[in-house]
């Protein structure tokens, strides 16, 4: 049920009342995913190992609450957004950076999958819900 799709081949939805997108054309979701992946490839070099390792340490800390983890993710994205070209839409860049951080953390420590997935889902729902819904509706 809580399946993490990172390749853009299947549309997903958030559960438990989170980011419930109306049924959409899967092709629209694939197009958006491809665009975000292309941006991610450009940003990939900007994410320093130090930022990833710092987040890994926070995710490993079982005493941190969901909200604290979300704050750490937000801080890391905020730190990285400074290196993004100013002509790029900031919300889109932040969304891509969050997804890239998630990917890099999971590549570093795969055992953190569930915790990282839940934190990323929470972060995206808090920060980008309206943006994602708007992006899907504009592309449809």
Automatic annotation (TrEMBL):
**Cellular component terms, GO, for this chain's entry?**
cytosol; mitochondrial outer membrane
Keywords assigned: Apoptosis, Cytoplasm, Membrane, Mitochondrion, Mitochondrion outer membrane
**Membrane-crossing residues?**
none
Classification via InterPro entries: Bcl-2-like_sf (IPR036834), BID (IPR010479)
Its annotated compartments are: Cytoplasm; Mitochondrion outer membrane
Q: What is this protein called?
A: BH3-interacting domain death agonist
Gene Ontology biological process terms from the UniProt entry = apoptotic mitochondrial changes; positive regulation of extrinsic apoptotic signaling pathway; positive regulation of intrinsic apoptotic signaling pathway; positive regulation of release of cytochrome c from mitochondria
């Amino acid at each position: 049920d809580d399946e993490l799709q990172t390749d853009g081949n299947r549309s997903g939805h958030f559960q438990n009342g989170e980011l419930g997108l109306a049924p959409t054309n899967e092709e629209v979701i694939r197009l958006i995913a491809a665009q975000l992946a292309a941006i991610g490839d450009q940003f990939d070099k900007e994410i320093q190992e130090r930022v990833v390792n710092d987040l890994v340490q926070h995710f490993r800390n079982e005493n941190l609450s969901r909200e604290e983890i979300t704050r750490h993710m937000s801080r890391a994205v905020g730190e990285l957004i400074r290196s993004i070209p100013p002509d790029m839409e900031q919300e889109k860049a932040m969304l891509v950076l969050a997804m890239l951080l998630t990917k890099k953390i999971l590549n570093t420590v795969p055992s953190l999958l569930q915790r990282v997935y839940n934190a990323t889902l929470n972060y995206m729902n808090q920060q980008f819900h309206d943006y994602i819904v708007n992006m899907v509706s504009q592309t449809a």
